[in-house]
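Hey, I'm writing a tutorial for new members on how sequence and structure tokens pair up, and I'd like a real worked example in the thread rather than a made-up one. If someone can provide the structure for the chain below, I'll link this post from the tutorial.
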Amino acid sequence: MIRTPIKFGDDGFIDSGRFQEVKNHAFEHLLTRIEEMGTEFARWNPDAIRTFVDSEVNSFVRIRRFAVNESEIREIADALTKELVGLGPLEDLLNDPAVEDILINGFDNVFVSRRGVLEREPALFTDNQHVMRIVRRILAPLGRRLDESTPMVDARLPDGARLNVVIGPLSLDGPLVSIRKFRKDPLKPEDLMKFGTFNEEIYQLLEAAVASRCNILISGGTSSGKTSMLNALAFFIGPRERIITIEDTAEMSLNHEHVVRLESRQAGYDGSGEVAIRDLIRNSLRMRPDRIIVGEVRGSEVIDMLQAMNTGHEGSMATIHASSPRECLYRMEMLAGFAGFHGSEESLRRQISGALDFIIQIGRLPNGKRRILSVTEVIGMSDGIITTQELYRYESVIGADGEEKDQWVSMGILPHCSKLEDHKGKMRETVVKSAPVVAQTASRDPAAGFWSRRR
């Protein structure tokens, strides 16, 4: 039987206390019937279970004379089927392509992010035990442990979504569940440009930078779109190149013919068996990579990543949490210091400036839109300081109609990177065309134009 999926919130019934009451009674009835059948039920496939639930809920509602109609009975049966063979209230949210994040702060406090905007969801769970039942169903096939002795867990769902759970005694308001979803079909650069993440000029620069094997670091905050940008840039990589991706929790989905995916491993219950990202980067150098892509630099692996970029593995990319290109450089220095870098401060900065070619700063605006905020080139060293120049800067302007519009201001500067020599002719034409915009910007704020060239 073909069934139309029922979405939470389609009408007032699913959000009502009456739905929860009838569903809870019907669920207890189903558990009794399943217990009576014993091992026979365990051998049933999902279609057989769905038919069984439909039949049992229909008969139960009529015997108990609950005041619900046929449509409401189907909604109850659909919800109970998901409880038995799926992930209960999470099933529809996980299948909704518009949902990016699911955040559960206790059973009665659920928020969902759609297109970068957080919204509160109607009550989906009966109690905290209901939440834990669904969480343990997710973790069971993954072999992950969650109890008072191990009250935090990170895991990856079969569809690639990332799960984090925190329970008591660390959590005071019930189970805290965070699920980050990822697109099964990665966004192409053309898609991001259509969504307004960047404009045509930045598109051409990024295409040239990736094709010319420039080393790129994508910087931004949480949920700013760093991974999506990394996936999009991979479309510019030639089909004959071998890419090795290294991640803490696998999130990237590169649309490329030759991708080798590596994922770190946490330590076991006895503290042994850990394989860190730093270990994977070292090992990847023995795997004949053309490019190494690190999902996120957050620890001691920064040293090995810089060494890889400085020793012939050009065209490598990574993401990092930072609020600006300059803060990105400071953070790399800090991480290297924490990792026990033994050289001088100047030698570390020389490694960073020699390894990186471009820093792409991306951010999520208050309205939920994700935009490239800055494209900055790392030039080299001067007076012991890493020198950079900003090529493009994002500004929002108010149009004649009073609506806010996106604008990327070109600083009127060509990249210094020698890898882009073959592309500088076309870039020069683009810069000349955008020169009037730069002049207008400089006349409004001369200091801003001067500082962007100097930093």
